[in-house]
Amino acid sequence: MPADNKIQSYAHVVVLDAATHTVRAASSNLQDITGAAAGAMVGWAATDLFPQDILDGLPANRDRRVPLPQRIGSDGPVDWGHRQIIPFFDQDVIVLEIEPYLQNQLGSLDREVALNDITKGLLEASDSNELLNMVCQKLAAYLKFNRVIAYQFEDNGAGLVRNEYNDGRLPAMLNLRFRASDFPDEGYKLHERETVLNFAISSIPFATVQGDLGAGTHSVNYYLGCRTPYPIFEQFMVESAFKTLLSIAIIVDGKPWGMLFGHAIPETRLDYQLRTFAHLIGTLTGQNITYRLLEEMRQRLLSSDVVRSTLRERIAGASTLRKGLLGTDPSLLEYVTPSSGAALLVEDKFAVLGITPPKHEVLELAVWCRQASGTEDLFVTNCLEKQYGSEHLRELASGILFLPLNASRSEWIIWFRPELVEEIIYGSSDNNQQETGEARYVSVTESRRGYALAWSMAQIRAARDLQAFVRDVVMERYTHLRRVNQQLKTAYAEMEDFSYMVSHDLRAPLRGIDGFAEILLEDYGTGIGEGGKEIIQTIQYNAARMNQFIADILELSRVGRAKLIINDISVADLVADTLRDVNQQMGLAAELTVQQPMPPIRGDRDQLAVVFRQLISNAIKYSGTRKKAEIVIGFRPAAAGARFGEFFICDNGIGIETQHQQRVFGMFNRLVTQEDYAGNGVGLAIVRRIIKRHHGDIRIESNPDQGVTFLFHTDLPAPIFEKTS
């Protein structure tokens, strides 16, 4: 709306100096009230126009966000009739809007009841479409409009009539589209500042506000209820044969998301109170739309959360960023869907997924996108040819989402969408094609070319999330993590060397302790009493236990130091060999079942033999107190949705309580006494170290006194020689 200082003819405006309460400006139609020309009133004292009690009440409005109207009548220096004053404080001036007070103008409308009715409808609506349909119907019923529409803006400034209530006296507008030029930027500004405007076409021309408005210009043109509409709106009313327009902005996230428009055939005025009612309806509608949009976005995020988290895990775990991005299940095309193709330049290597333009076209487009995105963190459009001049790319790249992955924008991803040809019914003709004198607002069917499906805010946010993850978690920390990883490998190797050296060197003094104790018994046994002999034997026993501890530590160290020779190994042969060894060492006093068939297991034969030997030995040991000890060795296929089947060794022994099932894999952690069950508590630590080196996992299923089942798997690639870790 041009800043022309005009107002609708039904109202009057007086601009007072805030300090002196003298008139600085007045509307030209005040002459109808005062008999004096507007220019002549400049310099009048406010008391020449208003009673003192009205002026005394003005300061109470200075700090109010919503003006409080004051009634004014025939008492005083001027006969105002049945009107009210709405004051607006704007820096050094007070702008007084004076309008007819139209109580019950639309019948016995109880605004509180109506507001409660609409509020309940907003809460009960199942979705945004039902919500807007209800609001249109209620506004038409309560404010006596023949047609009420809900109009949603699109990213390019155009819009769509997505909901309508119509009593049949005006043509239907549902699903009509309007062009960006039908709602210019000034229209946005008009409704960002004051969201409600009521305008009725009158035979009386607009009044002008004359004099020095100063800062009051802002209020006159953007806040007063009697401000004039943008001329295009008036043209629409004239061509559509209705006299009254009500516009209510639906504000979402601080910006107009759409509009509620009421159209009435007769001339209808809404006073300040009814405009406030309309304001509340707009606010409540905007809040509920915001909530529902957020809820819809939340549901979309939940449904795509698996895709995003899986992609992130893959990127974080991949040896290079490029491998992480180019993986499948999910692919980048599933991350921003629907996309027909994607291209990326990462680590100086170009790659594509799906259907994309040729490589040279993509690289040229990326250079342009880096410039076109300016200071933004990405570039997105659903009509590339309007900006890039790429009509030849319509079929492949009418829509693009360009996502830089680093600060220099030298690495990036571009998602593509093809052209979506649509037959669109516009509610207005194209300005560029309109002949002079022709009606602007006529239905026109056009074939829209060069546009792709628009990118949603949720998709743009998902792209930004990926960008932040790659920048913050992967690229910026990659060098640091690689350095730390190398340091850890060095420290681990040094720790293994130290552990091996110390364990080896500790055995010499232990042999000395045991040897001298034996000499003491042999050479001086006759002079030592029975109590002394028991002490020496205790020393020998503990030296032997210490020697076994050292042997176990050396065994654990060897597990980490040994090179792995990876093959696919027959589990049946491995179990048979293990059972033969165990039988020779401790005997098989249990009923043992080996289920067949079993698949091969991939790994190092010697180390996996240790796994089976330790687990089978434990099963024999801890089921030995049963009248009938039972052990089962077998394979459990992968459950639905699981990646791996598991080998298992099950016994009917003493079992393990749930809270201790992880603890038993620690070094020297034992849940039973040495007297009850022999052992040092190292075997399961060795088993877990071996399984982890095979990129697998081991777990326990057990309850106390109900036996225990150890389940494990490996996850290694095709047979290779692994370097010492």
Automatic annotation (TrEMBL):
Residue intervals of the Phytochrome chromophore attachment site domain: 127-283
Enzyme Commission code(s) on record: 2.7.13.3
PROSITE patterns: HIS_KIN (PS50109), PHYTOCHROME_2 (PS50046)
Enzyme class: transferase
GO molecular function: protein histidine kinase activity
SMART domains per the UniProt record, alphabetical: HATPase_c (SM00387), HisKA (SM00388)
Histidine kinase domain ranges (all copies): 501-718
Pfam family, any one: PHY
Gene3D superfamilies linked to this entry: 1.10.287.130, 3.30.450.270, 3.30.450.40, Histidine kinase-like ATPase, C-terminal domain, PAS domain
Entry-linked SUPFAM superfamilies: ATPase domain of HSP90 chaperone/DNA topoisomerase II/histidine kinase, GAF domain-like, Homodimeric domain of signal transducing histidine kinase, PYP-like sensor domain (PAS domain)
Family in the record: In the N-terminal section; belongs to the phytochrome family.
Protein name: histidine kinase
